[in-house]
Amino acid sequence: MKIDSVYLQQLQQQIARGNQRSFEDLYRLFYARLLNFALLYVHKREIAEEVVNDVMINIWNKQQDLHQVQNLETYIFTAVRNRSLNYMSKNSSWHVLPDSTFEQGAIINLNDPEKQLEWKEISFHLNQAIDQLPEQCKTVFKLIKEEGFRYKQVAEILNISSRTVETQLFRAIKKLDKVVGAYLNAPRKKRNYFFLIGWLLFFTWLFE
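Now predict its structure.
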């Protein structure tokens, strides 16, 4: 999800000056995305809500420090990740939530009932494959595919190298290609494979 950088900078400046309405706008703008991101780590909605609220309250309480933040979006996601990891370190029984949220419809004409049914079937198997990805693969995949972050931003959020982000993303794509490719192996379903390939090739354009 892309957010207008100029608007975000304006919010950041206003919050740094103590503007509560701008903070409320920022909260509404990021809440759902941050909640889904926290769920990848803490697995339980009420805990994820607590994590996100703690981070946002901390931003408000330290509003004077926002002048030093270069990229507010990356800063907030990093804070949620760190807060989630802190929670997990104290609750080792918790693990990553398999979040099956998946954007659909961009690569198929959903006005065609037959294509819509085909895509729902493919999407079901894709979601299963995404859920089964290794933890880091899945997190990288979701930050890039669902949140629209670039490689460098994901590297900063997860505290890993850009090269690792690239490697994890292509591991994810390779696994998804293998899983869904096997599903589409039947002759009557081969035509759907072109939809899948188009969707996967989208990621080759995400380099910095």
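DSSP finds nine helices and no strands in the chain.
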